[in-house]
Each structure stands twice: as C-alpha cells, then as structure tokens.
C-alpha cells in the first residue's frame, strides 16, 4: 500500500508524475479547485470579508475519494502549480481534507521532469499563506465588484448584463480604439518610388526621401525628373547586428502564436498546458524572462553540438516589469535534445518555444547595410535605396531563415547591385502614388493581451479567461467589417512622359479583430460615467500591485478589502439611486413620411430603430439593426431602409416567399424554411429572380445524396463541420472521408456506425415521456428532456448494473427524477392573455427622496 499520496490539479499531470515516482507513491488529481465561492449568492460576509467556500456538487464524489485515499496514506504531498492559484488549490485541499501540518508537505516545480520532481520531494515547504491570501483577495474583490455592479446594469441598462473589474477595462480598451477609428480623418500624401538601371541593366528600387502633400507638387517633381540625368551621389556601407528576442513569457507566447500560427489566446494556453503536463516545457503561466543555469547549460550544449562553438553566447535576461516574479522561469523546453514531438498541433507551438529559447542563447547576427543615394543637384529631393547582406547568421540559424522573428516583409531589404559614386543611372519608371494615413489598428486577441500587460492590468493566469469572458458576454465580437472604397491618384513617369490614372482602393475592412457590440458600447459608457475610478487604467493596475504586496507579505488582505469597499459601496448606492437609464439613444432625424423622430437605441431584444415616441397616440414602429450596423454610426437613410423589411415576393412551388432580417442576419423565407442570404449581400437588393436562385440552391443542397434502407440521406456543413443526416440523426463526417464524393459504401458505413453507437447509448427509452436511461462517459444516467439525473444506489447501498437497469419500470425512474427535482413533472402555467391597453405615457422622473 502506498505510504505517500501526491495530489495535483490535472489527470494528465498525475499520469506524467506517476511515471517518475515509485510504488510508495500514489498520484491523484483534484481536477482544479475542489471548492469555491457558491455559484448562487455573493458568498462573502461583508462585515469582515470572510468568504463562504463550498464544495460544488460535481466535486463531492471526488472529495470523498480523496478523503478515503488520505486515510490510507502516511503523508500527503500537495503538488499543485507554483502560482497563486496553485497555492490556493493546495490550501483548499488541506482545509477540506483536514490535513494537519505534520501530515502534509507542499512541493512546487516549474517543469514536470524526473529531476525536478525528485528535487521538489527533497525540498518541501508548507503552504505559503501570503500567496493564498493574494488569491483570496483577487477572488473576493472581483466577486464583490461583479455582484454589486451587475444589478445596477440590470436596472439602468438591460437585464442579464454583467460587470467585472478586469473585463470592463478590457472592453473599455476595445471601445476607445473603435471610437478613435471612427473619428480618424485620413490625410493624403504622395509617395514616390523609382526603378533605376545601372550600366549592367540591373534594377535598383529606390524611394524618395520625402513625401509630397499635394498632387501638383508630386506632378511637378515627375516633370522635372523627366529631363534629369540621375547619378549615384553616395554609397555608404555600415556594419550592424541583430539580437535575438528574450525567451517567452505567457504574454509574448500568446502574441507570437497569434501572429505566426494564427492561434487564439485560449488555444495557445490549452496547447501549452498539454506541453507542460506531458513534460515538454516549463510552466506556461509566467511573466519572467529568466532562465535557470541548468537551462542555459542545456541550450549551450545543444548549440555547440549542432552549430559549433562560435554560435554560442550564453546570456540571461532581466524582466522590465516591476511586478514580475523573478523566482519563476521563462517558458522553455525541459530538454533541448528533444527537437520535435509527434503531435502535429502541439509540435507547432513547441517549435516556436524551442527556437525562441535556443536563439536567445546564440550569437548576434552580423549584417552589412548598404545605402545608395540617387539624384541630381537640380532635384529638391533625392532617392534612397537600401539593402543588406548577412555576414554571419548567428541566432538566425536556429530559425532556418535570414530574417528575425520581429521583422516584417517591408524591412527585409534585398541585396543591391554594385555601383560607384558618380555612376550615371537611367530611370526605368518613377511612380507617384496617393496614400492615405491609417488609424490605429483594431485589437487582435494577442494585441489586447499585450496592451493589458503594458498597463499592468491582469497577470499571466488572467489573460485568457478575460479575453474569453468579454466575448461570452457579447460585449465584443470578431464580426467581419466590410471595406469601403475610395479613389486614389497614380502618376507614372515613363519614357513617353507622365501618365495619370484614377484607381479604386478598398480600405477600413477587418477580419478576426475585436469590435465592440452596441451593448458593449452602452455598458462601457455607463460605467465610465458612473464608475470612473473602477474603469480607470491606473486604478486597476494599482489593485494588481496591492495583490502583489499581499503575496509578498507587505499588506493584510482584509485591510485592503476594507479600504476598497468603504469607497466602492457608497458609489454603488448613489448610482443606483440617482443615475439615469442608459440605452445609447441617438436621434437620427425626422421620418419624411410621418414627421416623427427616428431614434437608434438598445431595446429589449437588442439594437433597434424606433419611429415615433412612446407616449404618442399611435404606437411607435420598430426595426432591428442588421449585424453589420451600429447605433453609433447608422445614418437616417440607412435606418429608414430597414422599415422596407420584411417584404413579400411571389410564391414559389405554391409556398409564400418573403425577405427579412432576423437574429442570425438577412434571410429568404420560403414556406416555413429560413434560408440565409449570403454574407455581404444587401437583402433589399433581393428580387424575385434572386430569391428563386437562393431557394433553388437550398433545394440542391438539401437534395438526398443517397438512400439507406429506403430512407433519404442528405448532407450539409454545420457548426461542427461536415455532416450527413439520416431520418432525424445528424452524423459527423470525419476528415478521412472525401466529403464532396461520398460513395454509397461510405454512407452505409457512417450510418451503421452511428446507429450502433445510438443503440449502445440507450439502456431504456420512453420517447413519449422524453425519458431515457443512457450510458454516459462516467456510467449510466437518467435523462428527462435536456436535464440529467443521477441513478441512486440500491437498498443494499450497491450500484445498479446495466442489465438490472433494463428491468427498471418507468414509475420507478420517475420517482428517481422527482427525488432530485420535485417540480420536474409539474404542469407549466400558461401565460395569461395580454389585455388590450392604450399606450402609456412615460412616468415623470421623481426627484431623489430626501433622507429623514
């Protein structure tokens, strides 16, 4: 029997660690936190800020199993992660499992390797209460902010909304960037570029050193250049060098994985977690760029053996952030001799980490930069051509490229042909192109993380959940922004003279970048107007510093909470009592038909347009905004167009046809079938012919591709990828099948496999009652509609076997369900019929009640 019990957070981590420890150790997983604040209610005693922790229902069985394992062990090793969250998990385990200090040991390691695990066992410590308190302070403060601010939003903006300390600041960044883009006025200028030929007819691409603000100035320059003899005025060669970037922190890994691999923040952290748990990399939540001496030595040995002594340059990096925990290490490989791993997706991220770490320990790349100045004394400005040669590749060899990870294509200049000062050059052509200045770019996920880090908001463990939360709350999204069009002037000087042409360019379009939703903007503006300090970047950063002071033992966490709440709660009461409601309302103008005001605002079901007032005798009319429209930017003309929808067209195959806009965008409705209109197509442009085309495309898409036992089989592509449909069963089609050319045998194979799986799924099924006993991942369950219920134990306290469940009666199953949910079979009350009412006038605003 194992004398030692080791508890970690994840089963994958447990599996890896078990390999390194002998039979004296049993490794169990807690599956993250075993207890937390309750899901319902605040769960905090506000008189002294004591949290009321509870074990969640889904963890009670696990906790019972851990308690049983604790009784059998002589010593319990708490081996959760080395950050504040991990320390809190260890503390909760110790509290809930009632572990005494003499029977428990806390161990930490930043990599899951045999040496690291054994070294941790040799150097145990007790739970660091300061780290636990820092995590408690964050959890409690954020719970208070969310629970007290959210009801204010329900009352003043819209029900179902939420606010949070870090998430609201992240939304503010996105909203302010969008407003900056809207207000940006592009300024034109003319950039000149020339292609010159030397005596050997080799091309030299050069740019004019200065841009022209006016078209006339650019044209005058081209006319002057037409008769000018160009010469090489100067050739300058300078030595230079490039230095590798520091090893990865959580933030820089997220940014690089985004730009290089196209991974979102959540995907990056999920893959990094797997790499860590499987022992390939060090801990992936860190804000330090330090490397251990062991890592520096390991990288040095690998560099020398692979590239040679002259490529090695061991160095350590210091973190610029004052809040970084220097005791931690950067993200790096645990073993530099492991150059790649089997899993393709994991390997992509591993390669990024491996190369970055190796490059950080290599010599600088030596380059030779050449600058050629081209022109004539008669010209007011001269051209400049730049090129460079890599003399020694240094760290670039780790990347297998002659370009650093920080370079973009514009800066990757080509090698220039050899020329001498005074040499005459002939121009092939010189172009002057009108260019417009651009506003700041919208945030990508990684870009938003970088900005939060720069402002000192959040910590490595908070970036991914914050980014996920603001999307889940629908305060921001990544909808596609359709580009606009504008005319640009291009003038080209060739041997026949200056040719002028007007071109059309697209601008302002965006994909996969954060854009605030209407509700996100309204909530942000309301919070800034009423809770300016909570939304202040400096304040949020100072709160993070407060948590750091608690972690270092320099501040007591309940004192910090008392100070915060004494200022925060009175503000909540004041806003709840005195603030005006917010709906982002804009008056767009007057409807020419009715003479009534046209409003854009947030309504009960989202952003909408309203013609008329609530207290008019004739009720106002409403129209929903389309997905690509926004309350802040929609014009009167665009708003009035929405009232043309829906409109009817002629019947097709005896079924009525109409065009409208719904929750999921514009559609053609044919009978009871809704067919989405293709992205970017204006629903108002859909006429009878186009509607019939869309309907026919739907018919073709829905036409059976085969039959199975006399029943039609159709196919389509949905949220989870390509599928086929047989009767009412949807069957996912794996990548190994050619989806566009499925054979009858493919269809038979897919349907039969699904039917077999479905047959094994049900132990008993009562379709009319919507009740079933099913095999699930962790054992049999009862389902009633969409709800899942546990199967109770038998009278002798033993579990039901699957064969026994086949004989259980429906009445017995109903008793099981009722025992867990007394209202499961209660009849739902029908909503009362609405009484006809006249339009109410809005109530006059009350003056704030005077305090007695």
UniProtKB/TrEMBL annotation:
Residues 842-852 have a biased composition (Basic residues). PROSITE patterns: TOPO_IA_1, TOPO_IA_2, TOPRIM. Keywords: DNA-binding, Isomerase, Magnesium, Metal-binding, Topoisomerase. Residues 824-852 are annotated as: Disordered. Transmembrane segments: none annotated. One of its GO terms (molecular function) is DNA binding. The keyword Amino-acid biosynthesis does not apply. The record marks 33, 138-139, 142, 154, 285, 473 as: Interaction with DNA. It is an enzyme of class 5 (isomerase). InterPro entries: Topo_IA, Topo_IA_2, Topo_IA_AS, Topo_IA_cen, Topo_IA_cen_sub1, Topo_IA_cen_sub2, Topo_IA_cen_sub3, Topo_IA_core_domain. Belongs to the type IA topoisomerase family. Releases the supercoiling and torsional tension of DNA, which is introduced during the DNA replication and transcription, by transiently cleaving and rejoining one strand of the DNA duplex. Introduces a single-strand break via transesterification at a target site in duplex DNA. The scissile phosphodiester is attacked by the catalytic tyrosine of the enzyme, resulting in the formation of a DNA-(5'-phosphotyrosyl)-enzyme intermediate and the expulsion of a 3'-OH DNA strand. The free DNA strand then undergoes passage around the unbroken strand, thus removing DNA supercoils. This is DNA topoisomerase 1. It comes from Epilithonimonas hispanica.
């Amino acid at each position: 029997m194992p004398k030692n019990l080791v508890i970690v957070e994840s089963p994958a981590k447990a599996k890896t660690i078990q390999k390194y420890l002998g039979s004296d150790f049993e490794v169990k997983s807690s599956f993250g936190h075993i207890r937390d604040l309750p899901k319902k209610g605040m769960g905090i005693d506000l008189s002294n800020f004591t949290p009321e922790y509870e074990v969640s229902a889904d963890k009670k069985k696990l906790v019972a199993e851990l308690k049983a394992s604790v009784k059998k062990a002589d010593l319990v090793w708490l081996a959760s992660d080395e950050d504040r969250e991990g320390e809190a998990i260890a503390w909760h385990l110790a509290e809930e499992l009632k572990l005494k200090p003499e029977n428990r040991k806390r161990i930490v390691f930043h990599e899951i390797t045999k040496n690291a695990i054994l070294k941790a066992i040799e150097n145990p410590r007790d739970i660091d209460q300061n780290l636990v308190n820092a995590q408690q302070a964050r959890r409690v403060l954020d719970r208070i902010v969310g629970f007290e601010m959210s009801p204010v939003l329900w009352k003043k903006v819209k029900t179902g909304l939420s606010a949070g300390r870090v998430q609201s600041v992240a939304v503010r960044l996105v909203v302010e960037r969008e407003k900056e883009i809207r207000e940006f006025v592009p300024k034109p200028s003319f950039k000149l570029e020339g292609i010159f030929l030397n005596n050997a007819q080799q091309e030299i691409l050069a740019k004019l050193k200065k841009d022209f603000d006016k078209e006339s100035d650019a044209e005058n320059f081209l006319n002057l250049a037409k008769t000018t003899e160009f010469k090489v005025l100067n050739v300058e060669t300078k030595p230079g060098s490039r230095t590798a970037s520091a090893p990865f922190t959580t933030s820089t890994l997220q940014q690089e994985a985004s730009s290089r691999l196209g991974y979102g923040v959540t995907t990056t952290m999920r893959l990094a977690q797997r790499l860590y748990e499987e022992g390939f990399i060090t801990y992936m939540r860190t804000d330090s760029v330090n490397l251990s001496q062991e890592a520096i030595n390991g990288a040095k040995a690998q560099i020398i053996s692979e590239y040679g002594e002259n490529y090695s340059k061991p160095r350590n990096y210091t973190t610029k952030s004052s809040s970084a925990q220097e005791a931690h290490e950067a993200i790096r490989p645990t073993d530099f001799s492991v150059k790649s791993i089997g899993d393709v997706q994991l390997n992509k991220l591993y390669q990024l980490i491996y190369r970055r770490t190796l490059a950080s320990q290599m010599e600088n790349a030596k380059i030779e930069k050449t600058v050629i100045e081209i022109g004539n004394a008669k010209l007011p400005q001269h051209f400049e051509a730049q090129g460079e040669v890599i003399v020694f590749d240094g760290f670039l060899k780790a990347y297998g490229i002659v370009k650093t990870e920080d370079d973009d294509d514009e800066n990757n200049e080509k090698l220039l042909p050899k020329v001498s000062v005074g040499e005459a050059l002939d121009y092939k052509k010189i172009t002057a192109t009108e260019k417009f200045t651009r506003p700041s770019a919208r945030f990508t996920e990684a870009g938003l993380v970088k900005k939060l880090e720069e402002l000192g908001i959040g910590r490595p463990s908070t970036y991914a959940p914050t980014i996920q939360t603001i999307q889940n709350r629908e305060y921001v999204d990544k909808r596609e922004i359709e580009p606009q069009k504008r005319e640009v002037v291009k003038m080209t000087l060739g041997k026949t003279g200056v040719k002028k042409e007007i071109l059309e360019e697209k601008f302002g379009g965006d994909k996969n970048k954060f854009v605030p939703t209407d509700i996100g903007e309204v909530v942000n503006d309301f919070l800034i107007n009423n809770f300016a300090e909570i939304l202040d970047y400096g304040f949020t950063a100072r709160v993070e510093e407060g948590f750091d002071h608690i972690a270092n033992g320099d501040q007591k966490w309940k004192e910090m909470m008392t100070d915060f709440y004494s200022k925060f709660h009175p503000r909540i009461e004041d806003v709840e009592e005195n603030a005006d409601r917010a709906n982002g309302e804009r008056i767009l103008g007057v409807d020419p038909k009715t003479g009534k005001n046209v409003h854009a605002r947030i309504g009960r079901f989202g952003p909408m347009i309203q013609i008329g007032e609530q207290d008019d005798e004739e009720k106002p009319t409403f129209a929903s905004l389309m997905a690509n429209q926004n309350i802040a930017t929609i014009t009167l003309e665009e708003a009035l167009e929405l009232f043309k929808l829906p409109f009817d067209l002629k019947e097709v195959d005896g079924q009525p046809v109409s065009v409208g806009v719904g929750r999921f965008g514009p559609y053609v409705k044919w009978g009871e079938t809704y067919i989405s209109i293709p992205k970017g197509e204006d629903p108002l442009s859909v006429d009878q012919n186009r509607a019939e085309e869309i309907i026919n495309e739907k018919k073709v898409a829905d036409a059976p591709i085969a039959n199975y036992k006399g029943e039609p089989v159709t196919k389509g592509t949905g949220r989870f990828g390509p599928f086929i449909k047989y009767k009412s069963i949807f069957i996912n089609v794996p990548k190994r099948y050619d989806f566009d050319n499925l054979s009858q045998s493919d269809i038979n194979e897919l349907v039969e496999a699904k039917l077999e799986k479905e047959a094994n799924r049900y132990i008993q099924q009562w379709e009319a009652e919507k009740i079933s006993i099913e095999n699930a991942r962790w054992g049999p369950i009862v389902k009633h509609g969409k709800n899942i219920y546990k199967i109770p134990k038998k009278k002798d306290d033993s579990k039901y076997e699957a064969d026994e469940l086949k004989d259980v009666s429906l009445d017995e199953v109903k008793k099981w369900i009722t025992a867990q949910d007394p209202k499961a079979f209660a009849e739902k009350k029908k909503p009362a019929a609405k009484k006809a009412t006249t339009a109410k006038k809005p109530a006059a605003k009350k003056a704030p009640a005077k305090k007695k």
